[in-house]
Structure formats: structure tokens, C-alpha cells
Write a structure and sequence with these properties.
heterodimer, A: about 160 residues, alpha/beta, Glutaredoxin, six-stranded mixed beta sheet, 7 strands, B: about 240 residues, alpha+beta, two-stranded antiparallel ribbon
């Protein structure tokens, strides 16, 4: 179990995985608490959420772009309240399963009790999606945006938190 | 011979000194870095707040459990104005912000119908409110609300919060979003209907039903705030 967790953590760090994986709350917390210099952009979405699906391409495009530039930004696109099979079918249909990592990484949260995982993302959050968390534990960066983003907004919030590096 | 020994101890002394100096320097760097981080953390906190209240400044200041809610008067799908004071026999009100389009709200539609069926007779009618701007989500227009209410033969009032003033006052952020009020319109519970949106048969915690049962017994609500996923309210731009 410990080995598996370490494996997962190294995948999150190095970005060796691609396409969709499941993610437990503990694994999500681990990604959030990682002490390194990489800014993590964690987007909470669902296949049934229209504004979420609308903004996904921006996360994919910006993720690819920043990765190409060698920026230390990682995107974790976490499907919530969704079934892994539904998410996989969606990713295939959109061609998102063809995206090679490291950016972005799609996964499905396995924790079912929303009352447990929602406060872990943000204490004041009621659970409306889409929502995006920018986080880096080492640099004490934690900014939460429970709203739909335009591409420009996404680029702006990322660069505003990168400047603190 | 003694010369060599002396220079040897000198080197040892210098070595010790350098080591101490380096450790002190490391501690100093670490401390200043921590201070810097703490400072950044504070700055961060300050900058997070405006981000979360970006689109809906009132929502963050909405009702908490224990607050007294203001009454409202909103147009129902039957074409009449409905206010909480119109419910003469009510012991309380199950105010649910919901809508037509949201798949998540749809998953709860039948459960909302059931809640009304069960608890209206006991004094807790469902009062459903659609807060979405139909220019952003056409499926949530008043016409479509009327269609839906007819299709599903809603026995409860389905109201249109056209100005979004009620949703803002309550601090609703999503659909579905439940606010259970008592007779004095005091908020007694905020949150989810139960703990399993996708499969009603797999739900194990029935937050709203349990809260009403507790109120009926004259008890305080033991679990008075829960979190659940929902569709963001479509605020006017």
C-alpha cells in the first residue's frame, strides 16, 4: 500500500501517467501538501457540468503551453461525483485521452462523501462547480476560485501566483 | 614537532568555527525564509477573499444557521406571488434553491417531490426557488419552469427569483441548496438533502429528513450544516 502511494506520488510529481486515473482523497491531499516548487492547479469538474466542460479546453491548452515553456505548473483535473466509466467515455469522445502527460492529468475522485472531501479543498466552499484551487504548500500559496474561468482569467491567476516564486 | 601539532589544532579550531558559523547561517536563512513564507501566507489569505466573492459579493455574507431569514414574495409557476407568510399552517419551511437544467438538481427532483409529500402534512412544505439567469441558461426560463412543474405535477410552489435578490440574501451558491427554516423563519439547517446524489437507494444519511424530524420533536438539529456538490448559480453578468 505504501509502495503504491509512493508510486502515485512520484507520478504526480514527475507526471508519468496519462489519461484518466482514479484518485483517493488521501492521494489528492498528498498532491496538495507536496513540498516542492511546482504550482498545482487543481480543477474540480464533472462530465454532467456544462460550464466545467466549457472551461476544460482552457486548462488543457494553458497546461500544454506552460509545460512547453518549462514552467513549474502542474494541472490536475479532478472529476467529482462522476463514475470512472462515464469519465473515461467522455475523455475518449473529446480526444482528451490522447493527451500525453505531464500536463494536464485527468483523474476521478473516488471519495463518495462530499461532506468529507469538500471542506478539505476549501473550508468555506459549499461545493458548487466548476471550481479551481491554486496551491503550493512550500510557498504557502492557496487561492480558491469557485467559478467558471475564461482562458484569460486562468492565465492571469496562474501568472499572478507564479510571480511569488 | 610541536609546531606541527600547534598548526593541527589551529586547523581543527578554524574547522569548528566554520562549522558553527555555517550552522548559524543556515538557521538564519531558514528563519528568514519562514518569515517570508508566513508573510506570503498572510498576503495570500488577503488575496483569496476577493477571488471567492468575485461574482457574488452577497453570497458570502448569506445566512448562517441561527440567523432569521427575511420573507420574500416571488412569482410561482401558477402565476401568483408566493410569500412564506402565506403558509398559514406551516411549522417551518423547506426552502430549496433548485432549477430545471442542472443534472445534479435533476437527480434530486424526485426526492424533493417525496420530501414535500412526506413533510407538508407535518407542517414543513417545500418552497422551491429557481435563482438562475435564463439569459445564461435558457432551460431555466419561467416558461420552462412552468413546463417542468406541469410534467412532474409539482405539488409544491416553484418560484422564480428573477432579480436573484432572494438567492443573494440567503447566500445560496448552487443548485440544489437547502435552507430549512422554522416558523419564525430562523435558519435551522443549511446544505444537502442526503449523502448520495447519484443513487438515492444508496444514501445512508438523510440530512434534511432527519433535521425536520428533530424539529418536530422540539429538539435542536444535530447536523445543521453539510456540504455537497451542485451547479453554480448562474448570476446575471
Amino acid at each position: 500500500m505504501k509502495n503504491f502511494t509512493l508510486f502515485w506520488l512520484s507520478c504526480l510529481l514527475t507526471g508519468q501517467l496519462y489519461a484518466q486515473k482514479t484518485l483517493s482523497l488521501a492521494e489528492l491531499k498528498q498532491a496538495m501538501d507536496t513540498q516542492d516548487d511546482t504550482l498545482r492547479v487543481i480543477n474540480l469538474w464533472a462530465t454532467w457540468c456544462k460550464p466545467c466542460v466549457e472551461e476544460l479546453p482552457y486548462f488543457i491548452a494553458v497546461g500544454k503551453e506552460l509545460h512547453a515553456k518549462g514552467e513549474k505548473v502542474k494541472f490536475l483535473l479532478v472529476a467529482v461525483e462522476d463514475k470512472p466509466a462515464t469519465v473515461q467515455a467522455f475523455l475518449q469522445k473529446k480526444g482528451y485521452d490522447q493527451i500525453m502527460n505531464p500536463n494536464p492529468l485527468f483523474c476521478v475522485l473516488t471519495e463518495k462523501d462530499a461532506n468529507v472531501w469538500i471542506p478539505q479543498i476549501d473550508a468555506k466552499w459549499e461545493g458548487e462547480i466548476p471550481a479551481t484551487l491554486l496551491i503550493n504548500a512550500k510557498q504557502a500559496i492557496r487561492a480558491f476560485y469557485p467559478k467558471q474561468m475564461t482562458r484569460t482569467e486562468l492565465e492571469n491567476i496562474i501568472s499572478s501566483h507564479q510571480k511569488k516564486n | 614537532m610541536s609546531e606541527t601539532k600547534k598548526s593541527g589544532s589551529n586547523i581543527a579550531f578554524i574547522g569548528l568555527f566554520v562549522t558553527i558559523a555555517m550552522s548559524l547561517f543556515t538557521v538564519f536563512i531558514a528563519t528568514s525564509q519562514k518569515r517570508k513564507n508566513d508573510k506570503e501566507a498572510k498576503t495570500e489569505k488577503a488575496s483569496v477573499a476577493p477571488a471567492s466573492i468575485d461574482k457574488n459579493p452577497e453570497a458570502v455574507l448569506g445566512y448562517q444557521v441561527g440567523d432569521q431569514a427575511d420573507d420574500f414574495s416571488l412569482k410561482s409557476t401558477e402565476g401568483k406571488q408566493v410569500a412564506l407568510k402565506d403558509y398559514k399552517d406551516a411549522k417551518g419551511y423547506l426552502v430549496i434553491f433548485t432549477c430545471n437544467h442542472c443534472p445534479y438538481a435533476k437527480m434530486y427532483e424526485d426526492r424533493i417531490i417525496e420530501l414535500h409529500k412526506t413533510f407538508e402534512a407535518q407542517g414543513y412544505p417545500v418552497v422551491a426557488i429557481n435563482p438562475n439567469d435564463p439569459t445564461i441558461q435558457p432551460d431555466d426560463s419561467f416558461d420552462k419552469m412552468q413546463e417542468r412543474a406541469k410534467e412532474k405535477s409539482f405539488k409544491f410552489a416553484y418560484l422564480f427569483d428573477e432579480t436573484q435578490e432572494t438567492a443573494r440574501k440567503f447566500g445560496a451558491t448552487k443548485t440544489p441548496h437547502v435552507f430549512l427554516l422554522d416558523k419564525e423563519r430562523k435558519v435551522r439547517y443549511i446544505g444537502a438533502i442526503d449523502d448520495n446524489a447519484q443513487d438515492a437507494s444508496q444514501a445512508s444519511k438523510f440530512y434534511v429528513a432527519d433535521a425536520i424530524k428533530e424539529l418536530l420533536k422540539g429538539a435542536t438539529v444535530s447536523v445543521n450544516n453539510t456540504k455537497a456538490v451542485g451547479c453554480s448559480i448562474k448570476w446575471k453578468q
